[in-house]
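Reading a protein record of the kind used here takes only a little practice. Think of the row as the fold of the chain written in a discrete alphabet. With that in mind, consider the following protein and its fold in token form:
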Amino acid sequence: MRDRAFVKMSGGGNDFVVFDDRAGWFPRDQAGPLVARICRRGLGVGADAVVLLATAADADFRMVYYNADGGEAPMCGNAALCIARFARLQGAVEGKEMEFRTGSGLFRARVPDPERPEVTLWLVSPRELTLDLPDLAAPPYLRVGFVDTSTPHVVALLESEASVDALEVTAAGPPLRRHAHWEPVGTNANFAAVVDRSTIRMRTFEKGVEDETLSCGTGATASAILAHLWGLVDPPVTVRTTGGVPLVVDFTPSADGSPPTDPRLTGDARIVYRGTIAEL
């Protein structure tokens, strides 16, 4: 890893160490402990995850994603925003539109200007939707639902933005994240409140990081979709995350109340700094 170049990127507050691995140099057989060292704050670069830009036979490129604990995960919305912009900056794609492969399948993104952070990502239609889990909806939660938006998410609805801000997410997250409903792989846990018909406040406890993160793109999408199906918001929905950089979730509602289609996530993929690995 010595002298390997990386870019530190932030997608809505999720931070990533991003490498160009199109030449296949990254030691995948050592990825677990290596990623954990890179992501460890204080002793490593510090990040929620490591993301690789890799080649793909059936798409413009492939995104390979490792959580901070070293485990490979199929997909991350905010990382996908970042890898899309990174791919354009690295010359892996030439046009504004691109298609790339992940562990959750093919995704499409649009980067209008690689010199600016705005990126739009098209996500998969909601899967495994459960509008209400009454056994989990104990105070302070008003409702609890589940949806897979390319990664699994449970969403607990709270009374107000102040309630979300006051919640001890590091204590509230693990019981939902590891609940028997989602054994053995678990789920991400989101805590949301409606601000108005077009805005929600959300905090996320992410599996693989095992802590609260400043943002979550697929979690924002899950929260917006469930809030819409609960009759509380209309698209597009601005999601306020702890990172302070809003995410915008849009989708096409269904006339019969079934899950919406064509979900889109728009957010900022910011380059924080560029560096090289020295002593790790």
Summary: The chain has two domains: 5-114+269-276, 127-258. The first helix runs from residue 31 to 39. The radius of gyration is 18 Å.
